[in-house]
Amino acid sequence: MRQAFHLFIVCTLIFSIALPTASKAAGDDIVVTAEVLNLREGPGLSYPILLKLQEGDTVSTIEQAGDWIHVKAGNTEGWIAGWMTRANTETESKQEQKVIISQVDHLNVRAEPSLSSTVLTQLSSGNEATYIKSQNDWIQIQYGTTTGWVSNQYVTVKELSKAAADEMAETPNEGNIFTVTVDAVNVRKKADLTSKRVGVAYRGEQFKVLEQSNNWVHIQYKDNTEGWIYKFYGSFGAKETKSTSNASSSSGSVTVIYEGTNLRAEASTSAAIVHRANAGETYSIVETEGEWYKVSVSGNKTAYVANWVVSPTDSVQQPAATKKAAVKRKKGTLKGLTIVIDPGHGGNDHGTTGSKGTDEKGITLKTAELLKSKLRAAGADVIMTRESDVYVDLRKRVAVSHQVDADAFISLHYDATENSSVSGITTYYLNSNQQELAQYVHAKLAKKVNLRDRGVQPGNYLVLRENRQKAILIELGFLSNPSEERSITTDYYREQATLGIYEGILNYFDSQL
């Protein structure tokens, strides 16, 4: 009897989800573009399938988590892959047309509504983009061929007149060339993350765009083959600026700067290491690929080395540091100064993890974003060594500092130790030209946050040791201390800490006038 009852329940559930009727809630509807699309219990390919949707089915959205969308199909709720859907143009046409206007320069447009998400492009002050929807403190926009998210605190929203909206709708999208902006990305046979890989595209490579489908770009790949790339890993341009391969023949050689430098199988920091070179060793250049040199190792073997760990010689020159025009600066401003902010860790390097599970890499980025906004408001040109959850080699971070001729390099971290009772903030320097900056910044930081003051100390960190610029490294509290972790992971703490760092930087440069 009990088995029969269970069988009845299962049959009832199957019957109830077999024939969904697509809900059409105005403004929230999306249409299935795949021949068959699985509705799953959760946002991921590993979750059980509730039912199968067909191409053309319309479902109502509830929320979004990354590339996955929580939807309602008939009476059934579940999750579907967002890259296999499109907006319902019927409901879109009924919505009010709005635009956002950027109020700041260098406004990041991100792949998802999160500070840890990939930066797709940036808006300058005054740039307009089409408003799509809001989610918490974020706004989804369409800027050219890029769809992404911006923080609502740096934009204003304006409604368009019908004539202006019609004119915008008739403006054709530009961008027939797709340029890869990450170290390496898979090119797939179909617009699907589970599809067969046909090759790999590297940073700087450019490809002709054949079509776009949601978050995927159909490209003309190498050797007359075609493929699909996830569009968040590149940018669009109206015309091709160089060959579809970013590799160019070069002559000359490079000399390794650092002991134990990695030579890799491909032009990526994630590629396999094929050789470790010692400082002073010289290699002939075969060609260049973006930020990498392809060099001859031995015999007919080749490998790749990053341009920030070698010194080019002969006919190949290292990019010269940017020379800043002299700007007369008034006290209380940072106009004319270039400041590099270095959010510690990122990508597969999580940094320390707190007793409550806080990853250092996440809160260093959030802290850096707050500090950046304060410094830019004071007139500084601010460069971030990373603007999303990606791994950046330590020597590349230093190379950024040298390349832009930074007036200050600020590395942000959160501390940890085996003794969970240890607490407090520390500011580190190494070279004599770094000490005064460290003292000014730490003095203001210590006044703004209510943590134990561990003072200014020498620290033999690579980003300080190898840095020719005025560089400091700040440890903003101990994640290994449960009580301190609760305090330093709050928005209030980050606001106060970045205010202290900002005021310290300002006081230091005012003292130099």
Describe this structure in words.
- The protein has 513 residues and is an alpha+beta fold.
- It has five domains: 14-92, SH3 type barrels, CATH 2.30.30.40; 98-170, SH3 Domains (SH3 type barrels), CATH 2.30.30.40; 177-237, SH3 type barrels; 247-313, SH3 Domains (SH3 type barrels, Roll), CATH 2.30.30; 338-511, 3-Layer(aba) Sandwich (Aminopeptidase).
- The strands form nine sheets. Strands 22, 23, 26, 27, 28 and 29 form a six-stranded antiparallel beta sheet that branches.
- The protein is globular and about 65 Å long.
- It starts with a helix and ends with a helix.
- The relative contact order is 0.07.
- The model is unreliable at 7-27, 167-174, 240-245 and 314-320 (pLDDT under 50).
The CATH class of the largest domain? Alpha Beta
Main beta sheet: 6 strands, antiparallel
Extended strand count? 35
The fraction of residues in strands falls at: 35-45%
**Overall pLDDT:** 80
> What quaternary form is this?
single chain
* CATH-scheme architecture of the largest domain: 3-Layer(aba) Sandwich
Tertiary shape: globular
CATH topology of the largest domain: Aminopeptidase
List the helices and strands and how they pair.
Blueprint: H1 2-18, E1 29-32, E2 36-40, E3 49-54, E4 58-65, E5 68-73, E6 76-81, E7 85-87, H2 89-92, E8 98-102, E9 107-110, E10 119-123, E11 128-135, E12 138-143, E13 146-151, E14 155-159, H3 162-170, E15 177-180, E16 184-188, E17 197-202, E18 206-213, E19 216-220, E20 226-230, E21 234-237, E22 247-249, E23 253-256, E24 261-264, E25 273-277, E26 282-289, E27 292-298, E28 301-306, E29 310-313, E30 338-343, H4 360-377, E31 381-384, H5 394-403, E32 408-415, E33 425-429, H6 432-448, E34 453-458, H7 462-465, E35 471-478, H8 482-488, H9 491-511
Parallel strand pairs: 30-31, 30-32, 32-35, 33-34
Antiparallel strand pairs: 1-4, 1-7, 2-3, 4-5, 5-6, 8-11, 8-14, 9-10, 11-12, 12-13, 15-18, 15-21, 16-17, 18-19, 19-20, 22-26, 23-26, 23-29, 24-25, 26-27, 27-28, 33-35
Helix pairs in contact: 4-9, 6-9
